[in-house]
Amino acid sequence: MKSNTLILHTAALAIMPLQLMFSVFLLLRGHDEPGGGFIGGLVAASAFVLYAFAFGAESTRRILRVSPRDLLAAGLLLGLASTLPALWSGQAMLTAHWWELPLPGNNYLKLSTVLIFDIGVYLAVLGTLMTFVIGLMESEE
């Protein structure tokens, strides 16, 4: 279902990077405010779906660079990996753990199992939706 309209092609190329940046913003702010992996993954998937409508399934596969099923698998593995620090320390499965990594200039980068889980959800949602949409588009062609 490749479209040949100049307006859709131009819009897809202009809007896609903005949608992807917004999806990362939603992902990273999600554990403090509304947002997170699920809505970030939906926004990212909508960017790729717009691109797919404009340029077709094969072009979308090329721009993804990774199989959507691999994204789904990586997301599920990250979600599972986020539970391991709590289990290793004898706590409940999804208990959050935080780490501070020192940066130059007396600054710290705070990392958590919550962020790892959110990234896993992001990738799982993106992989699931892109597998579904690309599969439908390819069966139609």
Mind explaining what this structure looks like?
With 141 residues, this protein is mainly α. It has 6 helices and 2 strands; from the N terminus they run αααααββα. Strands 1-2 form a two-stranded antiparallel ribbon. Strand 1 (98-103) and strand 2 form a beta hairpin. Helix 2 (37-55) packs across helix 3. It is elongated and about 55 Å long.
SSE class: mainly alpha
Strand order of the largest sheet: 1-2
Cα gyration radius (Å): 18 Å
Biggest sheet layout: 2 strands, antiparallel
Q: Which helices and strands occur, and which strands form pairs?
A:
Blueprint lengths: L5 H24 L7 H19 L1 H8 L3 H14 L2 H5 L9 E6 L3 E6 H28 L1
Helix pairs in contact: 1-2, 2-3, 2-6, 3-6, 4-6
Task: Quickly describe the structure.
This protein is mainly alpha-helical and 141 residues long. It has helices at residues 6-29, 37-55, 57-64, 68-81, 84-88, 113-140; strands at 98-103, 107-112.
Short key terms for the protein model shown above:
141 residues; 2 strands; 6 helices
